[in-house]
From TrEMBL:
Coiled coil: none annotated. This is 3'-5' exoribonuclease 1. CDD domains: ERI-1_3'hExo_like. It is found in: Cytoplasm; Nucleus, Nucleolus. It comes from Dissostichus eleginoides. Its cofactor is Mg(2+). It comes from the Eukaryota. GO terms for biological process: regulatory ncRNA-mediated gene silencing; rRNA processing. Residues 1-28 have a biased composition (Basic and acidic residues). It is an enzyme of class 3 (hydrolase). It catalyses: Exonucleolytic cleavage in the 3'- to 5'-direction to yield nucleoside 5'-phosphates. GO terms for molecular function: exoribonuclease II activity; metal ion binding; RNA binding.
Amino acid sequence: MEEHKENIHTKDVNGKMSNTKEDEKTEPCSRICPEGESAPQVSPSQSSSDFSHPVYKEISLANGHINRMTKDELRIKLEALQLDTRGVKDVMKKRLKSHYKKQKLMQSSTESSPTDTYYDYICVVDFEATCEEDNPSDFHHEIIEFPMVLINTHTLEIVDSFQEYVKPELNPQLSDFCVKLTGITQKMVEEADVFPAVLQRVVDWLQERELGTKYKYAILTDGAWDMSKFLNIQCRLSKIRYPQFAKKWINIRKSYGNFYKVPRTQTKLSTMLEKLGLKYEGRPHSGLDDSKNIARIALRMLQDGCQLRVNERIHAGQLLSVPSSAPVEGAPAPHSPRSRD
């Protein structure tokens, strides 16, 4: 429900939204390097003098050459390197630059692996919620589909998925608009469990995969609405505490915009897919299908050299940005839902 989420983005329903400049802070993918290329990630123990290494001059020269290439030249070079040739010119440039940067850094032993990532797994979530064609200002959106798609960042594959429908309690009757938009029928939600029971099974699913214990993971969403609005509101309506594992997440729209250096207007799901040379697979506004397509974008970004990391969080009901200077931490191990009482 991509477009519908955007329509409610500016409405304060149950959670406060931050409009501070913090939202515009860039992520590690967009740190400035000569010729506009992203700088590699450095640990706090590394000094700025590390970038005096001759390898960075070589990377800068390579970037300058790539910037002058035509789209056809880029496609030929990518094909010769057996890299993906799909996407618009800026995407292909970024892909080729990332390839050469990794290659040079590997040769100089500056980085240990071309597939270094912050997390072992990334868990993509894209809720579907109750809605009206023109939502009243006091309308409470209830989650009616809870999907998850699991990405292995080392093998760069979608390895698992979860999906359950949820029975709404405040407004149990779905609008015709909602049914048509999401494809979720009244029968589906009437046969489903209420949110706390579904959330418990989500927790069980995450625990069975040892996420947050054996493996480091992060939640990823298409925008801020899923966590800061839908999950926040649903937890209040269900009288349970907001789950700790979902308090920080990767907003892929921010990551995509910063990595490929495009404006926010070009970070809608359909636009990101198009610019990457991908086509939507499945039914639009199906939570599971949307999650799978968001996962495909995340995989392509990882393949192109972006190190996805948490960039948003919720605190006391307020949406905040996570600056790139913050320590990188995985989501905590999930625990059973707890009552707000």
